[in-house]
Amino acid sequence: MKKIIFGLMAVATVLAASCGKEKTVTPGDGGGGGTTNPPVDPPVTTVNYLNLAKETRSFISSNLLTSNFSYRANTTSQSNSCFEWYNVSQIYADAALVAAGDASALPYMNNTFKFMEGFWDKSDLRGGYFASVRLDGTGAGGDKYVDDNGLTGMVYLEAYEITTGADKAAYLAKAKACADWLINSGLWDGTYGGGFWWSTAKPDKPTQSNGVAMQLFAKLYTITGETVYLDWATKTNNWLRNTMYDSASGLYIWKIDGGGAGTKHFEKFTYDNAVMLEAYLLYGKAVNDAAGYLAKAQDIGNAMNTVLWNAQYKGYIFNTDPTQTRVNPAWCGWGTQGMIRLYEQDKDEKWLTFARNNINALNTATRNADSHAYYFFAAFNGSNRSPEIEGVDQAWMQRVQAMMAKYDK
């Protein structure tokens, strides 16, 4: 799950095969976050989020979906490529649409799940998903990524919750396979005191890789009762809290890398912290301390809404580096999911206000009003739009719109 602001979009499409982040900077317009509590004024106009989700899905079906139920990486330079985390993000989006009452998305979700088998490493008993395949499901290759496999497991557990029979069993089995690959991959070691490496190339240990792994372990323990998953959730939580948490801001930092004791990169990203917020909520349920970990998640939410919120445009920034001023639908949109998860736990309407406003800000910044497609990056005011229409951005906007539709008023 790379977070990237790209100077050269040819570089972007290669790096975007995984869902972590690299940092090639192109300044834009739009501004960063603030240091005081932001206003949370509700949107001026009423928005039908379910209709928005359906419009986004229609663009995806017409421009990215293939006859194999795979999805093109984008509509331009990578139109013949298929990326693992893009595909599972579309399953995530369809699961949200089904949960919002649109059952027409269910067969797409299930058929893409079957297509995903082409990404699985069948030459290694440990398995694991590769980063890319061809549009027909052949030619799996690239590194394997902890965040991709962790997110995929979480996607499958959401699909597990809305399916029945053999489909339900298959989603749970593959979610467990993702977690088991994480445990047996050799990508957790004692470097920097523990933590998962980002990928099999071992360039660094990021918050997001460990955060989605923690989510998956915690949720699997809650579902299965298998203590191995609780043990790994606890170990991952302890490392994150001890190594990656910045008490001064109340947020999690980007990553740790380099030789020796390691270099900490203190940029704060919206989606890293949305991931950690949700990880706390899931872990609290796993350890029977829902109230205690809800309070920790609320603390992250409040910190996000101070440090990572643009009060002028009422949307989440990409990160706290002042030179990185454009927004991205997937990585900034993740903030909406975090706020909705908080609302689902404590029923505080303020979280929904941030969630709604963030969708609306991304619509202003990145949505093509005619095609209903979302641009890869843009300034908050809608200028400086990159030409790429990435599949993962469409998927995440469909997802958060469908999630928001459940609470549409």
Automatic annotation (TrEMBL):
Iron among keywords: no
Coiled-coil residue windows: none
Leader sequence residues: 1-16
Gene3D superfamilies assigned to the protein according to its UniProt record, in alphabetical order: 1.50.10.20
InterPro entries from the UniProt entry: 6-hairpin_glycosidase_sf, Glyco_hydro_76, MUG_Protein
Keywords: Signal
GO biological process: carbohydrate metabolic process
Name the record gives this protein: Beta-galactosidase
Origin species: Mucilaginibacter pedocola
